[in-house]
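This section describes the prediction task in plain terms. A model, or a person checking by hand, is given the sequence of a single protein chain and must write out its three-dimensional structure as a string of tokens. No templates, partner chains or ligands are provided. The sample shown here is typical of the held-out split.
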Amino acid sequence: MPKAGSSTSKLLSSELLCVFCNEYEDEKRYGKLISNDGIAAHNFCLLFSSGLAQKGEDNEGLDGFLIEDILKECKRCNKLVKGGSIGCGNSWCKKSYHYGCGKDNGAMFTYHGNYSSYCKKHSLVQEELPAEERKTLKPVDTCYICYENLNTTISPTTILAPCCTRAWYHRQCIEDMAYSAGLHYFKCPLCNNVDEWQAEMLRIGIYIPDRDASWELVPGAYNSLLQPNLECVADVCICPQGRSEDETDGEWELIMCETCGCQAVHTQCGKLKKKDKEWLCSMCRGTASGSSKENEVPHEPETLRSENKRQSSSSNSVPPKKTRPSKSRSKKKALAKGVKTLDNYFTVTKQSSTGLTVSSDSQFNARFQDG
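The expected answer:
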């Protein structure tokens, strides 16, 4: 542990050093480096120091940690054998270490509540799986973040997902993911569980910053979506300056589609009225009229357009196929015709069991109509 006086003298240089760990600024590893009145300290070094309390307001000292209390904590650490300001949370353990040294040697830090820390021997680990489930595990599995191999054993370097059964991760991959996603986007990569996932990660010492995701904080990250680079999509653009010309007001002003805003046309090319400049692109016009034109291409070449027209005209010129009448309808027609023919031309005879021939026109016709 550096002496308080020597650390303070180094702070007078152009680059500030933490009075506890004597390291430079590294927000991802140590937290934000805070400075005031020539004294600087990492956020995590302040929070996890065993003999340091936050007695001031947030605008006093270093985020509420008074300067005089910080210097007293540095003097206390200098009296220790190894000079570390952070002690193990186990009351029987006398180990102390710097924040960075503890991270490198398997110590665990809980980033909530009292901000306790535990050495490698007493660190909180996940519960072992039952013996029956343990037999079904592969000895080597894949981390579902980096897709590298890892050993499927509970250890300080591996994490078993609390929500997805038998899903393993590298601890470093989880820490990087949490730091990037923040509290509002940090969730299980497989099942998107939030509550159970975050509770277990906090318990085993994963730092989840209470902020928005890193990709949401990039200045101007979505400017391209707010100001799209549009061009005139008319089949024939008559603007002398080209399709990308966009006047503030006039005949070469690009008018965006009032429904989707993804396409535009010049006022003159679209033959729009100067007073009422409303325009719908081909896709939105087809949707509004009830006819789907999702496959229509805005910049379709003339040769392809003419060929498509010829194909559509040729397909429309094919005469429709003749359809056969249904069987029930044909049977009715044949039955009516057969009955009429029998009434006019036939005399049907019926031979009885005695061998005599009897004329029975009316009986046969009645039986034929019933059948």
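For orientation: DSSP finds 13 helices and 14 strands in the chain.
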